[in-house]
Structures are given as structure tokens and as C-alpha cells.
Design brief:
Belongs to the ETF beta-subunit/FixA family. This protein has 103 residues and is an alpha/beta fold. Helix content is 28%, strand content 36%. It has a single domain, classed as HUPs (Rossmann fold, 3-Layer(aba) Sandwich). The mean pLDDT is 92.
Length: 103
């Protein structure tokens, strides 16, 4: 989290999106530690994210259903699996990519 803080200090983004999983647990500790180090607001386990002016509207799954919260930017948001729909490359596109030069 300290290394990420140095990157955030250098780049000055308004929103940092982090994952929730690490090799040892599923506690999204890095995003929470980064928010604490920066003194920024945070929203965890986001399954939907919308930017509304100077705030991020985050929807997350909780035991009773869905919870929507708003956090003022700049902020840290940790992602749940449902935040993004993965796109998979088709076999023809994989074969084409093998022939393309690397720059």
C-alpha cells in the first residue's frame, strides 16, 4: 500500500480501483490501507460504479440485498467480481494476434 501511495501521489488520480483478492486472503486490505494512508474515502466490494460530478456512487452486495453508497472523490473503490463482464478473445483473433509484431 505504501508503494501504491507513492504512485498515487505522483499521478494524482481522482479514483483508484483496486481488487479485493490477494494470494493469502479475500479481505481487500490493500485498498483499505491505501485509503487510510491517503486520507481518502473508500467504498469496498463494488459491483456497480457510477461517477456523479465530484462523487462516486457505488452499489455493493450485502447480506440483505444491495446497498448503494456515495463517496466523495478522490476515493478508493475495491471491486467485486460483478463490477466488470470479462471479454474473451475468439480463436480466430488469438491466431491473428500470434502473427502481429511486438513493438
Amino acid at each position: 500500500a505504501k508503494i501504491l501511495k507513492a504512485v498515487v501521489d505522483a499521478e494524482a488520480p481522482q479514483l483508484v480501483i483496486a481488487g479485493k483478492q490477494a494470494i493469502d486472503n479475500d479481505m481487500n486490505a490493500t485498498g483499505q490501507m491505501l485509503a487510510a494512508l491517503l486520507g481518502w474515502g473508500q467504498a469496498t466490494f463494488a459491483s456497480k460504479l457510477e461517477i456523479d460530478g465530484d462523487a462516486a456512487k457505488v452499489t455493493r452486495e450485502v447480506d440483505g440485498g444491495l446497498q448503494t453508497i456515495s463517496v466523495k472523490l478522490p476515493a478508493i473503490v475495491t471491486a467485486d467480481l460483478r463490477l466488470n463482464e470479462p471479454r474473451y478473445a475468439s480463436l480466430p483473433n488469438i491466431m491473428k494476434a500470434k502473427k502481429k509484431p511486438l513493438d
